[in-house]
Design goal:
4 helices, 2 domains
């Protein structure tokens, strides 16, 4: 016994439900279109209000003199420098220096240059032995490389302290601090 089914004899799509679903989808799309048109109009109005407030015409921006532009660039450069100095991790650098500075050394100036990965240190050593020990500690450290003694000398005649003044430059990877 073989069963035969003829699917072409009956319509299996409910046309009423299909039409209702299409009508609901169209209504939803029309509602979304109206919402988008309203948002676009509100944004255009806000843009016009802001342009009027700033004094900007449709053709372009407000004309700024070269002097005002240079002054603004100088202010921006200063602000960026302040931000860069604030983001520098001074505590990590000072911790690393504390590990290598021996007794008999007083640091008077620490100048990090983040762009060049360079650190310049100035100070006073009680004697040359202390200075040599400080240099050896810097060279033996994993943090400081390419250590150079830029200058050394005796303090000026008007200075109250005795010892050896020095200037040292070295390379530091500030990202690893």
């Amino acid at each position: 016994m073989r069963f035969r089914i003829n699917l072409a004899t009956r319509t299996y799509v409910n046309a009423g439900q299909l039409k209702a679903a299409i009508a609901a989808a169209l209504a939803l799309l029309a509602l979304l279109l109206l919402i988008n048109i309203q948002r676009f109009a509100a944004n255009a109005g806000e843009t016009m209000r802001l342009r009027n407030e700033l004094g900007v015409s449709k053709g372009g921006g407000k004309v700024v003199s070269d002097q005002e532009y240079q002054a603004l660039l100088a202010r921006i450069k200063f602000a960026n420098g302040v931000i860069e100095n604030k983001t520098f991790d001074w505590l990590a650098l000072l911790d690393k220096l504390e590990l290598v500075v021996p007794d008999g050394i007083s640091l008077t100036k620490i100048e990090p240059d983040i762009r060049k990965n360079e650190l310049k240190v100035s100070g006073v050593a009680r004697d040359f032995k202390n200075l040599r020990h400080f240099m050896e500690n810097l060279e033996g450290s994993a943090t400081f490389t390419n250590v150079y003694l830029l200058g050394q000398g005796l303090p000026g005649s008007g200075e109250k302290f005795k010892g050896i003044t020095f200037n040292i430059a070295c390379q530091v990877d500030f990202k690893k601090l």
